[in-house]
Amino acid sequence: MNRTLVILLTVFCAQVSIADVMRIAVTTSFENSGLADVLLPEIKHDLDLDVQLLVVGTGQALRLGEAGDVDAILVHSKAAEEAFVAAGHGTHRREIMYNDFVVVGPKSDGADVGAASNAADALSRIVAADRAPFVSRGDDSGTHKAELAIWTLAGVDIADLGLRYQSVGAGMGAALNTAVGLDAYVFSDRASWLNFGNKGELVLLYQGDPVLFNQYAYLPINPSKNSHIRNDLAIQLEDWLTSQKASTLIDDYQIAGEKLFTFNASLP
Amino acid sequence: MTAAFPLVLNGVKVRRMGKTVLGPVDLTLSANGTTIIVGPNGSGKTTLLRVMHGIERIRAGGVVWENDDPARHAFVFQTPIMLRRSVTENLTYPLMLLKTPKDQIDMAVDHWLERIGLESSRGTQATRLSGGERQKLAIARALIRKPDVLFLDEPSANLDGHATREIEALLHEAANAGTRLVMATHDMGQARRLANDVVFLLNGSVHEYGLAEELFSTPSTLELIAFLRGDIVS
Amino acid sequence: MELWEISLRSLRVTLTALLIASIIAIPLGTYLAVQRFRYRRFVISIINALMGLPPVVVGLVIYIMLSRSGPFGVLNLLFTPTAMIIAQVIIITPVIASIAHQSMRELWAEYHDLLISLNTSKWQRILTLIHDGRRNLLTASLAGFGRAIGEVGAIMIVGGNIDHVSRVLTTAIALETGKGDFVLAMGLGFVLIGISILVNLAIHTLTRTEREGRW
Q1: Using one digit for the tens of pLDDT, what is the confidence trace for C143-177?
Q2: Which residue in the set B85, B97, B125 is minimally distant from C118, CB to CB?
Q3: Do residue B125 and residue C213 have CB atoms under 8 angstroms apart?
Q4: Who's near B116: CB < 8 A, 6+ residues apart?
Q5: Topology of domain A19-98+213-263, CATH
Q6: pTM
Q7: What residue numbers bound the domain in which B17 lies?
Q8: Could you tell me which of A171, A20, A21, A69 has the C-alpha nearest to residue C158?
């Protein structure tokens, strides 16, 4: 009984670690890829660094960075990132790797998206067919912004689409769930799609247009915001993320036999 | 002990919801004996008792004790209020409030449990006792602090003859031991058995007050005559 | 994701919040039952209204307060279990206080004449009511426990659902559901239900039931 008490007490009491700790806000798409589960143990081993991940949407990640509640952010929304740095919230922007977006939809593919010539064409076909609806993340995330950019390319004003366009205001997993439930088309990052466990009647219909390129960048937060920000650790991690070892880990990472990310960090 | 008396009520008035339910009352209670308050239902007996005990708000007038120490009073309610605890714990409660030493508490509790015949029910939840047992417990709980004055509001009103007899025996002992009793009752037999002096209340005022023998043998007002005869008086 | 670790953390956060909230709410509810004062009705209405506070709004407000760019940022409490405990205390204290107040009011109505007649002090009255009404107070606490253990909105915002740090059963369920892993989410859900039932059973067994007449 006493031993159990001691064990319980130890577990209950706060865990004090001697390793360094830093917090990064990352996007749900990154988390869904599962790459973090590969990288984090290696980071711990090489740098003795505990990286705490806050998994949020791009919008919230940027806000957390702005508030100085995290030490760095890893997102995929170039325009927003550049504005972030320009406003002085981040010290700089470092590209690490990219994956791509795909268009997913019902196996029956009433809009014949599978035969589209490019991404804009794919989305136009969905609107033209007017059979299955389209589900959007609608959460101001990197994925959402990329999707909106394609609609603009296609010359479609989503405000005109009415109920054909379902905006869920949530992460990738939630949006995919909704798409499965509605038997709808949806714009997803490849990693989230491959890792998604509830595919139902949906399949990957369109991929490959260079415009679907999805660049991930790492941004350390400006340490002048408050005294808690560990900029030293953020730089340490950045060096590791752009190293040869990281490049191998990232390029070798696969889901169901498919490569997900391509490492493209440049030397400083 | 009874230096608390005489008790003087001066022009005491109690109002409830705009109506005067008691008063004005002028009354002086002497130091000894047992005072019984009689009167028809609704005449204000309960209110008068509560005023004397100090737990009723007075609209006018004053209640003056010779030597007031509210801790030396005790009150037994018409429907006994039991704490949601065991019989024993109900008895120890008032003594614990007074921070009485444990051995004295144990002695007092043993004495009273035996006296009221609830020894075998020491651990029983008080809320499970019969009406008569509860009232005996309430009286024991009141007397365990050895109060100077014990107020009782129709204590045997809802009880059978057997329980009533036991309770009157308890009260008789207490009176003999020197406790001043002030009791309301509508049982005229009980009044005759226990009273030294009698207050006859009608419609919230004191209609007559005097020694028991005098009041019962030679009532001076028509209302009291009618009441003693058993008529309905209002 | 270690199930054991997450479950223990859930329990630790909620039971700590429950303890703190009860220490505040029970004397408060009892005091409001026995002490008359000018704005008493108003205070009671406020507490009842606070029960309807949407937890996620509480979370948002606490996030703003604890953020490093906020007034209490120096405490560096954001994204820790402590922040989650704070949020849960704020959410469940009105619940416990309201239910406690209700039962203490009924008990006070019952004991009122007797306790005044026995010349008890205000403090003695409060202690007596809490002691004799402990079964109902326990029910009030359990209501608070139920609210807290299943809460997800506030603790997601202030805790951040960080793996090995602030991830608990409810936030883990939200995460796995969002990933589409319903099987895992349901498994976690059953653990949550199991814990809830166990805690309720344990407390009721420890304190024995009314049938035995000890209450």
Answers
A1: 899 999 999 999 999 999 999 999 999 999 998 88
A2: B97
A3: yes
A4: B133, B136, B137, B139, B140, B166, B170
A5: D-Maltodextrin-Binding Protein; domain 2 (3.40.190)
A6: 0.81
A7: 2-229
A8: A69
